[in-house]
Amino acid sequence: MQTFDNKSFNRINNVFGWFVFVVAAIVYMATIEPTASFWDCGEFITSGNRLEVGHPPGTPIFNLLVRFFTMFAPSKESIPIFANTMSALASAFTIMFLFWTITHLARKIVRKSETYTSTQLIQIISAGLIGSLAFTFSDTFWFSAVETIVFATSSLFTALVFWAILKWENVADEPYANRWIILIAFLMGLSIGVHLLNLVAIPAIIMVYYFRKYEVTKWGVIKALILGMILLLVIMFGIIRGFVVVASKFELLFVNGFNLPYNSGVLFYLALIITLVVYGIWYTNKYQKIVANTILVGLAVMLIGYSSYAVTVIRSSSNPPMNQNSPNNMFSLLYYLSREQYGQSPLIYGQSFNAPVIAAEEGAPSYIPRNGKYIVASRKVNYKYDDRFMTVFPRMFSNEPNHINGYKQWTNYTGIPVQITNQDGKAETRYIPKLSDNIKFFWRYQFGFMYWRYFMWNFAGRQNDLQGNGDVLKGNWICGIPLIDDARLGPQDKLPEVYLKDKARNRYFLLPLLLGLAGLYYHFKKNQKDFWVVTLLFVFTGIAIIVYLNQKPFEPRERDYAYVGSFYAFAIWLGLGVLALYELLKKALSEQFAAIGSGAVCMVVPIIMCNQNWDDHDRSGRYTSVDFGYNMLIGCAPNAIMFTYGDNDTYPLWYNQEVEAVRRDVRVANLNYLRGDWYIDQMKRKAYTSDPLPLSMTHDKYYSGKRDVVLVANRIKGAIDLRQAISFILSDNEISQVQSPYSENEKICYFPSKSLYLPIDKEDIIKTGTVRPEKAKEIVDTMAWKMSESMIIKEGLVILDLLATNNWKRPMYMGSTVSNDSYQNLDGYFQLEGLMYRIVPIKSPRVDYDYGKVDTKLMYDNVMNKYRFRSIANPKVYLDENNSRIISNYRTIFARLAGALVDEGKKDSAITVLNRCIEVIPPSNVPFNYLSLSLVEGYYRAGAIDKGISYSKIMLKSSADQMRFILNLSKEQIGRLHNDIQLNMAIIQELYRLANQYEKGNHKKEIENAFNTFASKLGRSE
């Protein structure tokens, strides 16, 4: 039998490592999205390509990498391809290091002497191939590999540091072995500038060091674990946050105490740190204090990596168009790094969701630079809760109503009754969740639904890409084995077509899971030291993150990307499962045939995963995100102001403007960000060809802590001029302030009336182009409206200030995706022009759920001539739920336009619009939903009865199929689908109303029979 020495083995091992890199790189490059995806990707490409400041806590190293890759782009349109290529290559390198990690661990099990037999070589390489290729095609990792997101690069850093500690293990007794430890420290310092997930590998790395250097004892293991956790906490809170905290103290002392210029304290602190570290390294080297020297050098290189945040401060100081939180000094940088705008969740000890606040105490001050000093802008408010409502391990803590409903849904808790006196001075009984309720929520939702479900997506299979909340129809794991799936989720062969045809319906028949479990058990039996190292990596990148995140119910998107490190660890065991199968086969076959056979059989796993996952991970040819942003911008009038709110209706617009230079005259103002003084400052600066927002508020009127909330009170009878109201609020006179209901030591500004009006100069309205001359008769003399809320948050004040001071010189738009809660009750003066409402002085009362009067001339030109709908009609392009939901907005505006054309007697034009909608958004690619009813009604009203019936039948079949499936489930399962039942019955009922009004024939009877059948079954099931 042929044997191989270490040199030969290493050569073969390296060749196969690069082989899996090439395979992964080809797969990811072939399936990358050619432009920016939804969620954070548009922002990351923008901030990276132009080195701007993205959302907290920032990603300076990631930004530099994106900038490097996009420098090679030959055109603006190809910039996202190069940015996405970076993620693809980072992911491919991750796969390569995973391969070498698996072969390292497999070699320690298989090798019995200094040489390798061909059988051993086949075993080791096969294990590496199977494990790394399975992870290549895994659901979560592949998703991040084809878009510009930090998790691909973060995974590479995790793979690198874990591989590096194994390389150290090989040479731990040789001279200069500690250079691997220094490399790890440097990589971790750099990884801070990408994502903090990499740091949770520290406990596993410490255990590798302990097992290699020390005699293993029970107490030794415990001490090493404690040391690993302490080191993790020291880096997270002592270095990452603590370094900036101390720097801010020096800055405050030097500027406010010594009257020195800004940044003098920071520069002194940096010089002091550099001096102390350099001296310490010199001293420990001179006197051969090896451990201390290694620690100091490791600290030094980690700080060098962490120093990448200087890029964030430098770029923020130059005031780029995207400058989130404006971290240009130590105090704003600390706020930025601490992610304080997102709030904090209690972890070890905290309040329950219904805990009454018994006191509000002033917390740490927030400083801002002013006139050469740092002044206190505001102070944090620390709430003290009733001790009876405090608990260890507080999982059920959020007091938002929908979260409370979620807590109850997942635990069915009854609680412990406690008598309190509420804010009205009345006695009230509240039910405190017990510790067992918190544990139940953790186990059922945070672990079971928000981790185990994701884990099974990757190693068992996935039902579809629909985000569910625990019902049997959406987002569950499946495996493809009826006995298992049917028992949990109902008869899968009878699923409605819309679910069966979902490209994200992937089934692996439990093969990856079983192989991974076999590898886990085999690893435990053969090498317990390494087993516990991998287990620590698995636990700290999985379960520990679950505890740390303390997720609330009804997350806005799936969060599986947060746990990819634990899936990486399981992939190691999946690879080692090949060795477990070899042990079984060699009992019946020769060793060499058993080695070849185990590798060949196990190769089925990555092949199945590739086959099942390809169609829903192939994003080539998809342009929906960028086109959505383009369409929102392109239809705006020149120099417009566009208000947006969330990630998916803002980042695509930023991307279009910043990267592809689309409509840079339009100022995109995110309402959520307008709560921050830093963002209002940005809005008051020119950006490209967009002029500053014409706000009357100066910085001293809105900085943090000033007018964050403005009360609304009826102290004046009748309405008040909006201009006078804004002037009153900004006056700083005592008469314009009342006692704050939130703090005894604070006064707060207020609107003296809920009723506002704004006089209109019709000539100016026509002159500015706000309203076309032919619509002059519709212009009102005075805009009048009421504020329904008792308070207005800062972004609402900005909208009203703009309305008062803009004088209609700049068009003001509200994105159609913005929640009506943010309209400030101005929706009575909306004009629909496409994906956006324009605020105009024309009264347009709301009809049902439709806001704004349609300007058919402008909207027709936008929708039919200007808007892009690339790739939506291509059946080969994968459109997940998020894309489909955004695309549904198009159907709504097509239908609104068609309806308005019918109202104007232009039925032929209405049919043309509806046909265009079906052409660019065919139901075969994007299934109809409730919003599509307006298309059916549009065809009916335009006189195209046959088409109305045709699409009505498609909708009826879909809803009927879903109702038939639901009503055959168990009573408990039906209970979780209450919303689906209501929605489908509402669709059928509305289809009946339309058929009864326009068709009155066989189709009407068909709908009636279906509705009566389901209504009868629902009645019997209650």
Please give a structural write-up:
The chain is globular and about 95 Å long. A hairpin with a 3-residue loop joins strand 21 (830-832) and strand 22 (836-839). The model has no long low-confidence stretch (mean pLDDT 94). With 1022 residues, it is of the alpha/beta class. The protein is built from 39 helices and 23 strands. Helix 2 runs parallel beside helix 26.
Q: How widely separated are the two ends?
A: 72 Å
Uncertain runs: none
What characterizes the major β-sheet?
6 strands, mixed
Helix content estimate: 40-55%
Strand content: 5-15%
Q: How many beta-strand segments?
A: 23
Structural class: alpha/beta
**Mass-distribution shape:** globular
Strand order of the largest sheet: 12-11-20-22-21-23
Note the total helix count. Answer: 39
User: How large, in whole angstroms, is the Cα Rg?
Assistant: 31 Å
Q: What average pLDDT do the residues reach?
A: 94
